[in-house]
């Protein structure tokens, strides 16, 4: 047991110190009301909500196809889906810039429509979706694949349409895995830094999310504000993990290598 103390201190002490410093002397309460922190918090919540909706819209059909379809090259597709998880965030941001930038692969068609993607709030959403969607796809694919097909067949035998089978049987049975994927995707999007700063920049009130505030305020010598923003992120991450465990999704995460 004593041998576990040192690893526990190594992993927990830095975070505990950060939170304690944020709470000491009311620094957190004062700094978290700063306009820059509040603006970043609102922007982070808004962009992660949109990116989560996009993740479901893009990820669920893909997860369904991987779990239920007989796709040629499914292993290659799964590898491509997992790739953003292991890519350094700065590389992900650069890759997005090379596709959506003014001189990028899709730059001319986007420019012809009168749109600008890089260094906008939309770029923040794209970056968050790019790095976070794989977590949902992985979890959803595993959950959908684990649903007992005999139960679905029984529903069809009782006269349920295909849509009713999916709505009332498949999705409820896969719900723990779907919920776990959603929670982890949201948490990943909330904490995104590298791809965002490369692709969307660090513009206060437009692209500056909470992780970017931590960096920007630290660089500007505003340590209390940096610590306050970091403490909010720690609280969000802690809340996500507690929700996962309390709501019974822990087993779904552990089974998929996410917990």
What does this molecule look like?
It is a single chain. The chain has a single domain, classed as MetI-like fold (Orthogonal Bundle), CATH 1.10.3720.10. It is built from 13 helices and no strands. With 259 residues, the protein is mainly alpha-helical. The chain is globular and about 65 Å long. It has helices at residues 2-23, 27-31, 35-68, 74-86, 89-100, 107-112, 121-146, 149-157, 162-190, 194-199, 210-219, 223-246, 250-255. Mean pLDDT is 86; it is low at 250-259.
List keywords for this structure.
259 residues, mainly alpha, MetI-like fold, 0% strand
Distance between the termini: 23 Å
Radius of gyration (Å): 21 Å
CATH architecture verdict: Orthogonal Bundle
**What is the oligomer described by this structure?**
single chain
Topology:
Layout: H1 2-23, H2 27-31, H3 35-68, H4 74-86, H5 89-100, H6 107-112, H7 121-146, H8 149-157, H9 162-190, H10 194-199, H11 210-219, H12 223-246, H13 250-255
Q: What would you say about this model in short?
A:
By secondary structure, the chain is mainly α. It has 13 helices and no strands.
